[in-house]
Amino acid sequence: MTKETMIRNYRKFSAADAYIIGFIYKHELYIATMKEIAPRFIRVEHESSKNGGRRKLQLRLNNQYKEQLIRKGAELVGTEEVLNGEYNKGVEFEKLVSERNGIEYRGKDSIGFWVAGDIEINGKQYQVKLEGAQIVVESTLENLKKRS
Question: Which of 138, 140, 146, 121 is nearest to 3 (CA)?
């Protein structure tokens, strides 16, 4: 699958109405909300060979993209230290987003992106991603295509 096809299939199957992404710029944590993750923020990479070495879509933001998001209204949350906790930074970010929206964090789950978002705010499903997060593995998209 090409990158474009993978993104198209991901969007087709995603249960999210929008995305909340986080990123660190100059040791500060920012949050941006968007309808879709722009293809320029997505790279095709490979899992480790230990995990199968399959192709996957990964959220990658260079400084130019971060500066662009800040100009477009990304919200400064605090220093990157707010992500230091008992979980990895991605899970800590999801916990932070939940708590900022008055939602009790339900813990790390394994609900597929095609079933529901990571969080529901005012009836809208959101996928929550911190820069560097895996978006989807190609084989997951292949399996979803077979099922539909």
Answer: 138
Q: How do residues 29-87 score in pLDDT, each as one tens digit?
A: 999 999 999 999 999 999 999 999 999 999 999 999 999 999 999 999 999 999 998 88
Chain CA centroid to CA 94, Å: 9
- Please list the alpha-helical segments (H only) found in 31-88: 63-71
Query: Rounded CA gap, 126 and 97, in Å?
Result: 10
CA dist., res. 53 & res. 138, Å (int):
11
Residue 148 has pLDDT above 80, yes or no: no
Q: Encode 68-91: b = buried (16+ Cβ within 10 Å), e = exposed.
A: bbbeeebeebeebeebeeeeebbb
